[in-house]
Amino acid sequence: MIEIDRVGQVYLTKTRDIWAIAEITTTVATGEFVSIVGPSGCGKSTLLNIIAGFIAPTAGVVRVAGVTVENGIPPNLGYIFQKDTVLPWYRVRDNIALGLRYRGTPEREIKDRVAALLALGHLDGFGDVYPHELSGGMRRRVALLMTLACRPTILLLDEPFGALDTHTKTLLHKELIEIWREMGQTVVLVTHNLDEAVTLSDRVLVLSAPPSRILLDHRVDMPHPRDVFTVRETPAFAHHFQTIWKVLGEQFRTGAVEDLAPARRGP
Description:
By secondary structure, the chain is α/β, with parallel strands linked by helices. The chain has seven helices and ten strands.
């Protein structure tokens, strides 16, 4: 579904060119859940934005469903940002319906789809309340449902749960897994939380400090469905966590992210 082919990204300053991403090549299969982890500043969100078509890569190409991403956002792609994007002056059901109305979807279909999404997100009974009346976790659910309303086949998530407490985050992990298994999207998640990555993912990619490359492409072969409340207690979880941490922790230990010396003119 997603092909990342020798992608590199340079940021220009007044005194030098800095390669944030040196060269990354990987693929994400249809229906796969892949998480990207790495030290701060390694280009995780930049890579996600390149996949989404928000920015053009300096080198290489991204293909979605076989089509090169250029001059805009690929069709059937949804993006969840770090901060929720709900509109405070709209009720929950109106927020969820927003994208559908922009697309000219008939009102009967909007009503049915919003009702189904409220049930899917365990928000029955909250359709007529405003965002300020919801908890932070519930607002994150609304933001997710806003994106799901247009039925994306690809879902990109940029640290969507970072500001939440552990209990709320775990509940949302449970709901995200349920939604992913029911709707079958291809998911790419950027996160700083290795627990989160192992709990949710089929694969975890570890990026190096910039100019970043893939240091580890690790398959998390724990079967689905996963119980997010107990999976962390299993030997399999400990094995996957420790294997990934051995590589990721070394990046933190060496402090390599501090070195942003001028890079060469190509990846």
